[in-house]
Amino acid sequence: MSIDEYGGGQGPGPEVLVVTTNDVPGYQVQQVIGEVFGLTVRSRHLGSQLGAGLKSLVGGELKGLTKTLVETRNQAMQRLIEQARARGANAVLMFRFDVAEAADVGTEVCAYGTAAVIARV
C-alpha cells in the first residue's frame, strides 16, 4: 500500500502514515525529520468521577472515563499528525502514547514519535 493509498483519514493535507515500528516494509526512510508530539490535558467530568466512585464498589468498566480517555488519545494523535505534516513528514515512526496524571486535576496524554519522509522502494 502506498502512502497515497493509506487513507488514514487524519484530515486535510497529505496523508501521514503512523506506525509503531522502526520502519515500514516496502519503504525506505529518505529523511528523518525528528521528534514530534501531540499533547493534551483533560479534566475529568464530575459525572464520570461520581460514576467511577460508585462503579469501584461493584466493579466493572468505567465507561465515562474510558470514553474521555479515547477522545483524549485521539486528540493527542491528531496534534501529532498535524505537527508531522507541518514539518514536511509523510510518516511517523516509533509512535507511542504516554499517559500521566496532571496535578490531580486531569489526565495528560502525550502522543510522540519520529517524523520522517519515506518512499516506496
TrEMBL record:
Pfam families xrefs: YbjQ_1
Superkingdom of origin organism: Bacteria
InterPro entries: UPF0145_dom_sf, UPF0145_YbjQ-like
SUPFAM superfamilies in alphabetical order: YbjQ-like (SSF117782)
Protein family: Belongs to the UPF0145 family.
HAMAP family, alphabetized: UPF0145
Protein name: UPF0145 protein QCN29_02035
Provenance organism: Streptomyces chengmaiensis
Lineage: Bacteria, Bacillati, Actinomycetota, Actinomycetes, Kitasatosporales
